[in-house]
Amino acid sequence: MGNYKSRPPSSCTDELKKKISEGYAVVRSRLNDDVKPRFDAWNTIQNTCFQGTAKTLEEQLKGVESLDERTEDHQLSLLHLICAGHSEQQAEKIVQLFDACGDDEAKKEMLLKHQSKNGFSALHFAVYKGETETVEELLAAGADVDFGGRNKLPPLHLAVMCGNDELVDRLIEHGASLNAVDFVHFTPLHSATYFAHEKVRNVKFKITNCLKVYQLDLKRTALLF
User: Fold this and answer.
1) C-alpha to C-alpha distances, 192 to 112, 196, 222, nearest whole angstrom
2) pLDDT digits (tens, 9 = 90+) for 145-177
3) Do 132 and 169 sit in the same domain of this protein?
4) Do 188 and 159 fall into the same domain?
5) How many separate helices (H) and strands (E) can be counted in the chain?
């Protein structure tokens, strides 16, 4: 951004806005790339995770040798594929996958923390797609509600970016930090202010009220763009 002293404040502000906008555009692009179906490149159980029935997956899991297999293209786990997929039974599939792990907590944790080639967890996928029931199952299984991953993008920030006030509620209920910052050093309230989408008022209201309830540090004033 060059020497701030030699440039008009408005110029620096415009450049900052541009960098923030470009950063979030990259996030959307990477997420869209990750959740895109690639049926021809996936094996049978991977395709079932994405679009098959829960009953079919249950049968296939009985004979699978390893639950930590990945797709060759984007390094997606079976859990990623379930969260990226299209079916009313996706939440049920998550339960089946973790049941297949048995008492192996390390295996469950590995599935929850594994990141795709583009740096996203299964929880990121579920939040981005707006799948509330799927998100609930992941959190119930022990997913870290504040896990930002390589992209430094906490799930709550992603829900705010998408304007999903229901998921904002759920994530806060599960203890999502209201002081966490993302890759542009935005708190959730900063994000709610920046993304002036249709539901931003509800999102800002929820976050602001929670901040008051928990008496968190409000010295950082949300940037008004």
Assistant:
1) 27, 7, 9
2) 999 999 999 999 999 999 898 999 999 999 999
3) no
4) yes
5) 12, 0
